[in-house]
Amino acid sequence: MTRRDVLEILDRLDRSSIRVWLDGGWGVDALLGEVTRRHTDLDLVLALEDVPGMSESMAALGYRLVRGVPDSNFVLRDRPGREIDVHPVRFDAAGDGVYRMESGEDWVFPAAGFLGTGRVGSRVVSCLTAEVQMVDHATGYEPGPTDFADMRLLHERLGTPLLPPYDAIDSARGGPNP
Fold first, then answer.
1. Which are the contacts of 120, defined by CB distance < 8 A and separation ≥ 6?
2. Beta strand 20-23 with 41-47: parallel, antiparallel or unpaired?
3. Which of 51, 91, 129, 149 is most buried as measured by Cβ atoms within 10 A of its Cβ?
4. Can you give the residue ranges of every domain in the chain?
């Protein structure tokens, strides 16, 4: 997933009046204001009620549902194999985004986590804050080398406190201490 791909997707969603927040690797790179690595997908968070419009907009670009269900996490893929990993949330009265995980449990993104802004190229984008990115990456799955590298960059460049398991990062290697 290239910067050009991301901008094409965001332009299409803007034309459809669908607000999204970048998460995952592109969310980290947006916060840093530069592309720091190759990306296999684009992680997006959006309001649950915008899922039908988002799906329709992405279908116009050739994206089809390949995994998951629209009221939880789902993945869209186009013919060349580019993927969009979608995390729909229901916003509660406090502005927190409640995400229903595949397990049926709810994960709550705090309202302040939606205040992040960054850049993809020259474009200003909405993204989850560095603090929320750190919490997201520290919970729920076994991190890989790119996760360690992303969290190290958030820590070193933005001062985001490291959470376990990332607090064991070896700065020289970008991964966990042995």
1. 3, 6, 7, 10, 22, 26, 29, 30
2. antiparallel
3. 129
4. 3-129
Query: In this predicted model, what pLDDT tens digit does every residue of 58-111 receive, in sequence order?
Result: 999 999 999 999 888 999 999 999 999 999 999 999 999 999 988 889 999 999
Instruction: Give the CATH number of domain 3-129; options: 3.30.460.40, 3.30.365.10, 2.40.50.870, 3.10.200.10.
Output: 3.30.460.40
Nearest in space to 115 (alpha carbons), one of 100, 136, 133? 133
- Report residue 50: phi and psi, to 5°: -90, -5
CA 135/CA 171 separation, integer angstroms? 19
β pairing state of 106-109 and 116-120: unpaired
* Local structure of residue 166 (DSSP, 8 states): G
Residue among 139, 141, 149, 109 nearest 29 (CA): 149
